[in-house]
What we know:
Blueprint: E1 5-7, E2 10-14, H1 17-23, E3 29-34, E4 45-48, E5 51-54, H2 66-83, E6 84-94, H3 99-108, E7 112-120, E8 137-144, H4 155-160, E9 178-180, H5 200-210, E10 216-219, H6 226-233, E11 237-242, H7 245-262, H8 281-284
Parallel strand pairs: 2-11, 3-6, 3-10, 7-9, 10-11
Antiparallel strand pairs: 1-2, 4-5, 6-8, 7-8
Helix pairs in contact: 1-2, 2-3, 5-6, 6-7
Amino acid sequence: MEAYYSRKYVRIFNGDVVEVLNALPQECIDLIFADPPYNLSNGGFTCHAGKRVSVNKGKWDESKGIEEDFNFHYKWIEACKRVLKPNGSLWISGTYHSIYTCGYILQKQGWHFINDICWFKPNASPNLACRMFTASHETLIWVRKKKNAKHFFNYELAKSLEGKEDFLKKPNRQMRSVWAISTPKNGEKRYGKHPTQKPEALLERIVLVCSKENDLVLDPFCGSGTTGVAALKNNRKFVGIDSEKDYLDKIAIPRIKDVLNQGNLSPFKEKGEMSVSENEEEYGLLP
């Protein structure tokens, strides 16, 4: 399978997520961050920038019914397990529309839970119905393939990170499982808006704490490319998959090109050329 976009350090594929994952080499990925469809495009309305707007995001986010939605999540999670290295780890983000389904599937497939994170959004949109609590968080599940797997966790870095983007994080204190990180900044949307775009601060934290330099990071639903931006800025390699060519062309690839053209932007290293290498066998094997 030929990559839709290919440059040193990067492979992006446009196609069905399960088909692409099954075409990748077995146990080649160090870290996976997945933000799958929430299947909440149901004709309802929400509030955005003070205006009443549709919740419909596109055909890709429409529910096909409980059974078919379950089977979709089961297949892509199973395919992720095949490509993840024995000591790699997987993150899944979602709301109640999908995260509990994914959590149940992870249990059925024998994954081992490391943490669940409550990502609190201080600037979340208000609700219009005024008949329920305002949704202002998402749940992130962090798992490894087996209980005895030795996943990577940079405890000292997590402890030392300051709370510039998270007022709950205190310097030189253990990082807790509630993160207060705002939704994407305007500058992160300069090429356009993706309806489920994640903030760079969220992905940078995950990439820095849960992977090492030169590691290969995968996002099977890469959308606006935020995972790729966070990986490349911090000297990781990136593989992205998305079924929506329009988002890749207009948002994800331009954002990734910006990072590659600027070189290493990591705040933890001297500025200069990126140090990641393509010589590792599993990277060279990527289609």
